[in-house]
Amino acid sequence: MTYARSAGMRGTARLALVSLMLMGAGFGVTACQSDKDIDITKLGFESDPPETLYNQGLANMKAGNIAEASRKFDSIDRQHPFTEWARKALVMSTFSKYRLGQNDEAIKTGNRYLAQYPQSKDTAYVQYLVGLSYSKQIADVTQDQRAAGRTIEAMSKVVNDYPDSEYVEDAQAKIRFARDQLAGKEMQVGRYYLERKEYLAAITRFRTVVEQYSNTNQVEEALARLTEAYFAMGIVEEAQTAAAILGRNYPDSQWYADSYKLLQTGGVEPRENRGSWISRAGARLIGA
C-alpha angle 242/246/247, rounded to 5°? Predict the structure, then answer.
């Protein structure tokens, strides 16, 4: 093989290698440009210092761009886990997700914060945010009320574990609302059974309201429905007791007026039987 031929082959090889490199580079550029999931503007975003991202997130929040703020806070958590900046970012991430209506994500993020930083200065606030996120999921009483139960659980932790926090008053209000929803669900099911003359099933539901949700606004109707159900079954003494407790606590109520009229159709009036479960439950009612 002559020198000239050998040099020519080496030149061809180098040319082929350069061509392959250029093709590869071109392919890479094409692939990046066609990948809709990659945003070149975020390349610097991921590498910014955590304090920069955090301040940018706060600025976004102030400007009303909550979605962008949430992305900034999440980026800090991913890029700098278990740092003080990540801790602060988790708080703000929980808040921003709550504001965006992403309640499941807010709960998930908040619970992760509570597991990682149970003794931090922001724990009460995050626990409150978790409770708020559950409360936003409470549905109409005709639907499932698991969110109401979880609201009570989350907000009870605020009240019991952080009694001096500024969130206690609203937490208590959210608990009252959630309890009223649970009582309302019991009433809805109880009325269903009552309409179908399944009196024992109905009484079980109304009794739950009187015994477990005595401080809700559902108790008034529950006592009237107990009067109705017991009277329909011929258990007149219990019907009289329910009406008596109703009258003592809600004397101006239309429910009491209706219960009184119902008893009069049987020639009796409200009268308390001290040995009844209704009497014992009635002792816990306001005004008893």
Answer: 120
Do 209 and 219 touch, CB atoms closer than 8 A?
yes
Q: Hey, what are 54's tokens?
A: 């955090």
Whole-prediction pTM: 0.78
Q: Which residues contact 12 (CB under 8 A, 6 or more apart)?
A: none
Q: In a structure prediction context, what are the per-residue pLDDT tens digits for the chain, which is 288 residues long?
A: 443 444 443 443 343 333 333 334 333 333 344 444 434 344 445 568 999 999 999 999 999 999 999 999 999 989 999 999 999 999 999 999 999 999 999 999 999 999 999 999 999 999 999 999 999 999 998 899 999 999 999 999 999 999 999 999 999 999 999 999 999 999 999 999 999 999 999 999 999 999 999 989 999 999 999 999 999 999 999 999 999 999 999 999 999 999 999 999 999 999 999 999 999 998 888 544
* Cα–Cα dist 230/176, whole Å: 29
Spatial contact of 218 and 188, defined as CB atoms under 8 Å apart: no
Q: At what angle do helices 219-233 and 254-264 cross, to 10 degrees?
A: 10
Q: Is 97 exposed, middle or buried (0-12, 13-18, 19+ CB in 10 A)?
A: buried
